[in-house]
Amino acid sequence: MTDATIPSAPAKPSAGRRSRRRGAGRWIVLGLLILFLLLMLAPLVLAAMNAVKTAADYAARGPLALPHSFTIAGLKAFWVHANFPRKLLNSLLLSGAAAVFGTALSLFNAYAIGIGRIRGGRALLVLILLGIMIPQESLVYPLYYMAKAAGLFDSLWSVIIIFTVLQSAFGTYLLSAVMQEFPHELLEAARVDGATRWQILRLIVLPILRPTLAVLATFFFIWTWNEFLLPLVLLASNDTQTISVAMGVLSGQYVSDPTTTAAASLLGIAPTILFFLIFQRTLTKGVIVGAVK
Amino acid sequence: MPGLIGFLLVVAVPFAMNIGISFTRWRGIGEPRYVGLANYTRLLADTAFWTSLENTLFFVVAMAVVPTVISLVLASTLFDYVANTFGQGLSSFFRAGFYLPQILPVSAAGILWGWILNPHGVLNLILGGLGMVGLQGNWLGDPGLAIYALMAVMVWLQIGYSLVVFMSGLARVDPSLYEAAELDGAGSVQRFWYITIPMLRPEIFVVGLTTTIAALKVFAPVYVLTNGGPNFSTMVPSYYSYYQFFSTVRVGYGAAIATAQTAITVVLGLIFLWAQSRDEEEDME
Amino acid sequence: MKTAMKLALALLAGLTVGTGPALAASKTFKVWWYEPADGALGISWAAALKEFKQQHPDVNVEFELKTFNQINQAGSLILNSSEAPDVLEYNKGNGTAGLVASEGLLQSLDKPFHDRGWDKILSPSAVELGRYDQNGIFGSGPLYGISDYGEFVSVFYNADMLSKAGMTVPKTLPEFEADMDKFVAKGITPIAEAANDYPAQHLMYLLALSKADAKWVSDFEGLKGPLDTKPFVYAAQKLQDWVKKGYVSKDSTGMNANDMISQFTSGKSPFAITGTWLSTAFGNIKTFHASQFLFPGNRFAPGSTGNLWVVPKSAKHKDLAYDFIGITLSPKIQNLMGNSGGLPIAADPAKITNPVGKITTTLFNKLVAQKGLGFYPDWPVAGFYNVVLQGTQAVIGGSITPKQFGERLKQAYDAGLN
Questions:
Q1: How far is C225 from chain A (nearest CA, A)?
Q2: CB-CB: which of C91, C262, C278 is closest to A59?
């Protein structure tokens, strides 16, 4: 990997530079990709279809038929019963904080291990990897007792701290692996020029890693959003609960109404999809900047 | 280093507590009773536990091997072909599309896949419609099939993750490298082998390790689709310890399962890291 | 990264607001349950709470609709903290209510039970599941929970399909089987079943109970001695026989409860053998008339009183909690439950006009009168549920023999004896 490239001034992406491919082959490739995409998205279409059906329609024709009816009762029921706005705020706070703090923590950790070259970096990395190796259910009881002792039981803070750390285990590993591939000459040169560690991080490392950081933040946001077990146990009251936990509110012990559940899941993932679409732009921008070297 | 303190508090201390709990008989509240190695001797004789370890291998294939291969091909197609031929926008669109399954909460994914895989579900309807009645199956109810059904669900779920990591890795790659290779007469397969794969080596290691770990502690699809059945054919360690933690409330035994599981994961993770650092050293030469 | 910084700051600001202390009121009464709001229980408990508010205009009432999962998995931890409410719905059974009762987290209700006259409303058998001894085993010891409803497993049938086929409600098992043969001859699978979920084990247990007497049931449920597997082996045999005859489809091993419900409600199968928690859903079917009968020939059926109202030891307003429990037991609320299609424990059958509630209540009273509540197959040992579920699934799928089924249950059961 000695030929790692050095970023230079951004230029226009090289559209058209290699656009010699004009054969029929490209349509076949496109067709195959679209087919595969449709296959991947079919389950989501199924959810959307059933979310707007009436329960009677579902009962009569099953989940696979196109809707013969249209109702947002399921969506509304979830909105009201689950106190959706409050849960939305909690989920946003939790996932947003875990994404931002987790990414920052990952960057600092990885910088220290990967480039700061602190002693025993690799051993430390293995230790940190424990964070993603431990099955979460085994942390539930200890974390409960610790949160209780710290007076953070039933507080969003407890889960924010926990997920920041848990997610940063993955982030630290990913970033330090990427930093191994870093142009060391560049860092050396900066050091020779008298740049402090902090300046190197801010002016050299950060810009190059930006696309990866954006990906990390997106991952962290979405993973934390869908976390179920720890919020379920550590957040007792409804005022602190998150959306993914609230999604169970419509299913009782034995009865669950599939149309409302479909509606609930649609409503539950809508914010993540929105978030992803917004960040999708950042990701793309990052990719272009990074790609032009 | 704030990371270290946080890590000690959230991971190391609770994990040490978990090991401590595994030597006790405890119901989650009240006083634990020390029982020595009793939980571990029981574990060694527990066929359900051994079955769950065997099943994990299937999940490694479905979560680490298959999605990585598919995503590598997809990523290089999108980066080297679609982006150039049809534009960056379309390539991003596909990436977003393939990533969407990752966004779905598990509870919702469980219901959806239940609709698809049940004997009168979408999959069998489609197979019937295509005249392939012989291929129809009782996907979740047949002990011989259920694990493969779950594997398919995992592939579906995991592709988006590795694809996004690979594509962000390709962002570091200089497109002129491909261009030069193309001018030298390298076909797309050669470019894939000699440029994409070597350039993505760090990402491949990251994805390989993280998905292998994820496979070793896979839980959610089992929880929502099969409960480890039929006939324990889809039982996995995480579900088994969860079951002891929260259904039977044998917290000590659950902790023993979780400890054993973590130990296995750590050993495998170390082997992975060792291979990775060897690979890097070779690279340095 | 500027946007990221801004985002972080905004989040921090939001967080401090979000976790600020709740408005302090003079007297706040907290109540939790997890039954869906549109079910019979949800409707009648909401009415009870409304009544409570009228009786206590000075009290600030905080109600939270929880999820079954949360109480099932985190219930003991919440009760062990200072965040517990004044009264909450809690899962009956040794592993749940028994556990927290034996750890001293619940308030004994013996005093209000007598002082407030609940003992006149509830028979001793109706509170059997509310009593737990010091080991957390139900049936004896102090009273820790009150249930105000019941549940049992019976046969739901599609009355339109039966009358079209010229059938009446079968009185005996052979009659029932003969009816099913006729449906099979027409290419219809008679029983909607789901073996990848809870329903199939209820049918299995019904068949086992058909060969059981009162002593076997009480020994089995009370963990008294090694398991006598004869009824279970018989049930497995019968079940495999029914699969062979086409009464139950082998496909059911891949179906969950929702699939079973939809198979019955869409009119594909004339029978669904399941619990009264589905009475309201089946009563709402518009396309045909659904009704129910007790499993023919059985004295026992799976069934019991429902989940419990419990009062945490740490509750701040215990008297208010007792007031609320008292209201749920009042004739007004009990009759409302019946008229919403539910199964009240102390309603006046004459006052119930809802057809679903009426037949359910009538059948339940009949079952109670013949001392036929057989509880559930998964109760005796913690974690038995999964063993029974997977065993029944394997029996229906044909991957184990009835004898192996019996051995598997025995192994798990006897391990629980200690």
A1: 31
A2: C262
Distance in Å, alpha carbon of A125 to nearest chain C alpha carbon = 26
Q: What is the pLDDT of residues A61-99, one digit of tens each?
A: 777 778 887 878 777 877 877 788 898 999 999 999 999
Structure confidence by residue, pLDDT tens digits, A107-127: 998 888 876 555 667 777 778
Angle (CA) B142-B144-B145 rounded to 5° is: 70
pLDDT at C227: 96
Q: Where are the domains of chain A?
A: 24-71, 83-291
Quote the CA–CA distance of B95 and B170 in Å, as a whole number: 13
State the pLDDT at residue A281. 64
Pick from A14-18, B133-137, C198-202 the range whose average pLDDT is largest. Answer: C198-202
Q: Residue count of chain B, please give it.
A: 285
Give CA angle at A102 (A98, A108), nearest 5°: 160
Q: Give the pLDDT mean for B91-118.
A: 82
Q: What is the ipTM of this complex?
A: 0.84
For residue C70, the chain A residue with the least C-alpha distance is A232
Residue type (1 letter), B237: P
C103 contacts on B by Cβ (under 8 Å) = 27, 29-30
Q: Do B118 and C259 touch (CB under 8 A)?
A: yes
Range 65-104 of A in CB contact (< 8 A) with B: none
Burial A74-86 (b: 16+ CB within 10 A, else e): bbebbbebbbbeb
* Interchain pair B140, C397: CB under 8 A: no
Put simply, whether C19 touches A (Cβ < 8 Å) is yes
Domains of chain B from N-terminus onward? 28-284 (1.10.3720.10)
Across the interface, which of A165, A215, A286 has its CB nearest the CB of B6?
Answer: A165
B120 touches chain C (CB under 8 A): yes
Q: How many whole angstroms separate alpha carbon C148 and alpha carbon B122?
A: 42
- What pairing do the DSSP bridges indicate for beta strands C271-275 and C303-305? unpaired
CA count, 13 A, side-chain hemisphere, C111: 6
- The predicted structure's pLDDT at residue A12: 37
Q: Distance (Å, rounded) from C-alpha A58 to C-alpha A259?
A: 7
Note the pLDDT of residue B272. Answer: 85
Q: Do C250 and B138 touch (CB under 8 A)?
A: yes
Of residues C354, C383, C306, C234, the one with CA closest to residue C42 = C306
Residues of chain B with Cβ-Cβ distance to A291 below 8 Å are 170-171, 173, 175
Contact check, Cβ <8 Å, C22/A250: no
Position A5 confidence tier, pLDDT thresholds 50, 70, 90: very low
Of C363, C339, C362, C340, nearest in space to C351 by CA: C339
Out of B111, B138, B227, the one facing C386 most closely (by C-beta) is B227
Of A131, A214, A262, the CB nearest to B111: A262
Q: Which domains does chain C carry?
A: 26-149+305-369 (3.40.190.10), 151-304+373-415 (3.40.190.10)
Q: pLDDT for B187-237, tens place per residue?
A: 888 888 988 898 888 889 889 999 999 999 898 889 888 888 888 899 999
Name the B residues in 17-36 with CB < 8 Å from any C CB. 27-30
Using CB atoms, pick whichever of A134, A211, A222 lies closest to residue B102.
Answer: A222
CATH architecture, range A83-291: Orthogonal Bundle (1.10)
pLDDT tens-digit map of A135-146: 888 899 999 999
Residues with pLDDT less than 50, chain C: 1-2, 14-25
Instruction: Inform me whether the C-beta atom of residue A125 falls under 8 Å from chain B C-beta atoms.
Output: yes
What does the pLDDT read at residue B195? 87
- Comparing C-alpha atoms, which of C262, C311, C272 is closest to residue C87? C311
**Which pLDDT tens digit goes with each residue over B150-191?**
999 999 999 999 998 898 888 777 778 888 888 888 888 888
